């Protein structure tokens, strides 16, 4: 549910997740792109209490996972709870680094939990221990697994490297040209520059005979 945070400010939205009619998680976002810290904010979460016509229900503490990046347009080396998939062309699909989950104490006097947000960043606030546990991998879960799925189905032929190093290929520039063997190529598997042996010689003889006949006239 949209919390309409900061009077509906687009750059700092907030949302709450309910389970069985009870709030369990809060999502807070700071879209402002300012690494100087000038636009870092603190969001204050209050569940029930004064002004809500509901009993105070804030927990004594909350757990927070942060999603962070150098800028809102950055596409690599982003971190989720302190872990990262790596920079461009570095990822193997597994998170690296130690997971960092922040514990923030709530103020019992004001019935509020103050959640700091850097610019830019995203904070997922877990209001209960059960919500955090349900959002985490089970202890002992497999971190990665091997696959038997075949991903390469073309160009799988191999050749002895010792034979290749001493071969003369297809005879250099005057060798047999068979076009491209790449999948999808126009010349895929089709011989190029086909010719019939002796055709040029036969054409030359015919032209020569015609010239002699014309000369005789």
From TrEMBL:
Segments forming a coiled coil: none
Locate the transmembrane regions by residue number: 194-215
Start and end residues of each Beta-glucuronidase C-terminal domain: 14-124
* Keywords from the named record: Membrane, Transmembrane, Transmembrane helix
Source domain of life = Eukaryota
For this entry, the protein name equals Beta-glucuronidase C-terminal domain-containing protein
Organism of origin is Thanatephorus cucumeris (strain AG1-IB / isolate 7/3/14)
Q: What is the lineage of its organism?
A: Eukaryota, Fungi, Dikarya, Basidiomycota, Agaricomycotina
